[in-house]
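User: Hey, quick favor. My workstation is busy. Could you predict this chain's structure for me?
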Amino acid sequence: MDGLLSVTWKKQVEQTTQDVGRGRGSVSREKRVIQKTRSHITHSARQADTIAALSQRFGWKAFVTNAGQKRLSVQDAVWCSRHAYRVERLCNRLKSRVHLAPLLVKRNAPIEGLTSLLRLGVRV
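Assistant: No problem, here it is.
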């Protein structure tokens, strides 16, 4: 995110010359210059007001329920959040029982099929 941290830095450049090819150098031998660039951070400061505003905005979790259009009471909302369907936790439980390894797939169709199969395995 932009604007959360202000940073000032200093560019440090180091140049060295090196003979082209193998062996010892000579006066007539071609040389090349190797340049190493490094950025040294001299000062950094947090933008506390921007961070606080974003924390206020993103500090909530959104849960999807099958409740109607009416607003839930606080008690019902807490009950729904505690019994929320968490796919991440179910996938971790499935991976602990079934050996799943990373897989290289180049097309979208196998990815969609494997995702559907994984969801089916989680639900069973």
